[in-house]
Write a structure and sequence with these properties.
This protein is of the alpha/beta class. The chain contains 14 helices and 11 strands. The strands form 3 sheets. Strands 1, 5, 6, 7, 8, 10 and 11 form a 7-stranded mixed beta sheet that branches. It has a two-stranded parallel ribbon with strand order 2-9. A two-stranded antiparallel ribbon has the order 3-4. The protein is globular. The two termini are 31 Å apart.
Length: 401
């Protein structure tokens, strides 16, 4: 991991942007077959498991390219041992469920549901691996579990099958992305498009994730191409709303960032984006009342601590939503561990970026251009480090003091 100079800007939204939403990761960040809580106000499930993982638990109807729903495949014949493993998974007893699915596959190596058993076991190990990450970063334990999941997904890919091959290939892409291998993730998603091109469920899912990885790699043109293809081919797809939102974000990428509009600075020294020109800027929008912001708090503080010593400028921006005042926030921030400068405004800063849910992040490069925008929990270190490695163009050099 590189340690170079950058700017991190953390923002709290306004009355016009009062919605609080969790990450949209899924089979997530926590299983990628999950919907987009990032774009939903629906309450999260009670079990302590990533939203993505929860979606994997449920059978899904498939769509054709016009977005017309076809009925889900008929349920397979009852199998007490397989059903018992599925019940364990639903209870979030993932280690026991994984062992049960693997045991079932060992006894039934060539059954129609063998690939499904491998997929289910892999999803369970992936779900456990997510809990072993620290501040959205991998640990040796999480990596080992993700590698175990990859091996099982690979078995499912080799067995193939109409319903499970595409799912396994898609999940291999998502696990590789979680393992900080975005190029490997793109390769796996590309295989979904070619090897499993008739899979009505996982081709569009892989396309949306392909766009997500391209955005992570700061490849705006490629991401826009993927998102436009999704809108054209799957106008009624389950991810159509976030896809449209991400495309709107991308339309503002590689263009000059709008300025900060502070009313007051709660802590730290006042600054401007112009003064920080030549560094990388990360805008983080959150609020002290937002439960999903609280979930992201340790990771964002760790990010600031992680890059701060090498010149990452962290700036918080909050507004007056739900009664926040300079006095109330000033008392809360130190208690919560926030050490970086924080400003307050009336929501004008966030509104310029067309955000609607928090916690939210915007990355700005050394030249002062917007390069990335998404939920805070979807931020990859590699996106920041890519910007840190870029040389500032002469026009972006810092003004002389």
């Amino acid at each position: 991991m590189f340690r170079l100079t950058s700017v991190l800007l953390i923002v709290y939204p306004s009355l016009g942007f009062a919605a609080c939403a969790g990450a949209r990761v899924s089979e997530n960040p926590v299983e990628p077959e999950v919907s987009h809580p990032r774009w939903s106000s629906e309450p999260q499930a009670q079990e302590q498991v990533a939203p993505q993982t929860r979606e994997l638990l449920q059978p899904q109807a498939q769509q054709n390219s016009q977005g017309v729903q076809s009925p889900p495949e008929p349920a397979p014949a009852a199998d007490p041992e397989f059903d018992s493993a599925s019940a364990l998974k639903k209870k979030a007893a993932y280690a026991e469920a994984a062992a049960a699915f693997e045991a079932w596959a060992a006894v039934h190596p060539n059954e129609p549901r063998t690939a499904e058993a491998f997929n289910e076991a892999a999803v369970c190990w992936y779900s456990i691996g997510r809990t072993k990450m620290k501040n959205l970063r991998n640990t040796p334990e999480s990596r080992a579990l993700f590698e175990k999941a990859l091996a099982l997904f690979d078995k499912a890919v080799k067995l193939g099958g109409k319903d499970q091959g595409g799912r396994a290939q898609y999940m291999r892409g998502w696990v590789k992305f979680t393992l900080d291998d975005p190029e490997g993730a793109l390769a796996e998603f590309d295989l979904v498009f070619t090897k499993w091109k008739d899979d009505a469920k996982y081709v569009p899912k892989a396309l949306e994730r392909h766009a997500m990885v391209q955005r992570c790699l700061l490849r705006t043109a490629e991401a826009i191409s993927d998102l436009q293809r999704y809108i054209k081919d799957y106008p009624k797809g389950e991810d159509i709303e976030p896809v449209k939102a991400y495309l709107a974000y991308c339309s503002g990428f590689e263009k000059p960032s709008p300025p900060l509009r502070p009313e007051t600075w709660i802590q730290g020294n006042a600054t401007t984006l112009q003064a920080l020109r030549g560094d990388v800027v990360l805008l983080y929008f959150f609020a002290t009342w937002c439960p999903h912001c609280e979930e992201a708090r340790e990771a964002m503080i760790d990010l600031a601590d992680h890059y701060g010593p090498i010149g990452v400028h962290v700036i918080g921006v909050l507004d007056h939503t739900q009664g926040q005042t300079p006095e109330s926030v000033k008392a809360i921030l130190p208690v919560k561990g926030y050490k970086f400068p924080v400003m307050m405004d009336n929501g004008g800063t966030y509104g310029q970026f067309h955000g609607s849910k928090i916690p939210d992040v915007v990355l700005i490069d050394r030249a002062g251009r917007v390069r990335w925008h998404d939920n805070a929990n979807n931020l990859h270190d590699s996106s920041i480090e890519t910007l840190l490695l870029e040389d500032p163009p002469p026009a972006a050099s810092k003004p002389s003091k």
